[in-house]
């Protein structure tokens, strides 16, 4: 059973995992370096635990102690009970959901290991907006994608905003980072995947013409908002594909485009 500790000092060093949560640059550096991430809200905390992430501690306002009682009883990590005002002073924002947990990260698998046994994967290049990362992971989970590969400069899927937007789906879709981009795309091709680059560029064929649902193994490549996939990534692809547009619209937000494309590559896929 976890120990419940009442804390009334925002500078208490035991609360260090939760300090400055609104400082994006600080948290982007600190969290991977210290091997932690923050789960926000009851559902996300429970999903992180269900996915096997070890809890370092919880930060709860008083009314959430009873709600999280079963977790408190099961986990030996300390629970810090604080007032809503103190939680805001520590984190830098009003913690609407009243429950935060500091979780221990797991080592990421090598890309080749992740690819074994998968048939439908997403490959993201330089997607550095945490909202988009979370939305893409949520769609990947909902639409049956098997895994996600990230270029070295993609945003952190376990950053608090990404986790929140995904509603914890980042915990259910395996992912890995490629170390060298775009050279390591060769690892994907060697595993038997056809690399499809999603782009509105001239020369791209419509998704239904490419018939990705009939392919044995598909890697769908997605670029960052605005610029899309780089020239190097496009050159590394086996085929360029696009989502047909109407009413003069040239493209979709990458999160929306990902959902449409995931559905196209997973619907009626070969058994």
Automatic annotation (TrEMBL):
Pfam families on file: SpoU_methylase (PF00588)
UniProt GO MF annotations: methyltransferase activity
tRNA/rRNA methyltransferase SpoU type domain mapped to chain residues: 121-263
Keywords: Methyltransferase, Transferase
GO biological process: methylation
CDD domains: SpoU-like_rRNA-MTase (cd18095)
Protein name listed in UniProt: RNA methyltransferase
Organism: Streptomyces lunalinharesii
């Amino acid at each position: 059973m976890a120990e419940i500790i009442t804390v009334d000092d925002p500078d208490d060093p035991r609360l260090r995992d939760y300090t400055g949560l609104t400082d994006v640059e600080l948290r982007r550096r600190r969290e991977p370096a210290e091997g932690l991430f923050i789960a926000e809200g009851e559902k996300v905390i429970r999903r992180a635990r269900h996915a096997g992430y070890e809890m370092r501690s919880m930060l709860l306002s008083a009314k959430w102690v009873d709600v999280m009682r079963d977790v408190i009883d099961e986990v030996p990590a300390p629970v810090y009970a604080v007032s809503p005002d103190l939680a805001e002073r520590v984190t830098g924002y009003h913690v609407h959901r009243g429950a935060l947990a500091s979780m221990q990260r797991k080592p990421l698998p090598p890309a080749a290991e992740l690819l074994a046994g998968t048939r439908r994967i997403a490959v993201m290049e330089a997607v550095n907006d945490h909202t988009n990362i979370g939305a893409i992971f949520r769609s990947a989970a909902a639409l049956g994608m098997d895994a996600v590969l990230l270029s070295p400069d993609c945003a952190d899927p376990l950053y608090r905003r990404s986790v929140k937007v995904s509603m914890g789906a980042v915990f259910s879709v395996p992912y890995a980072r490629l170390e060298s981009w775009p050279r390591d795309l060769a690892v994907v091709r060697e595993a038997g995947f056809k690399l499809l680059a999603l782009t509105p560029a001239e020369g791209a064929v419509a998704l239904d013409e490419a018939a990705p649902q009939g392919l044995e193994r598909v890697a769908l490549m997605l670029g960052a908002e605005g610029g899309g996939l780089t020239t190097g990534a496009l050159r590394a692809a086996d085929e360029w594909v696009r989502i047909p547009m109407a009413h003069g619209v040239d493209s979709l937000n990458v999160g929306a485009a990902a959902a449409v494309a995931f559905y196209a590559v997973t619907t009626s896929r070969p058994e």
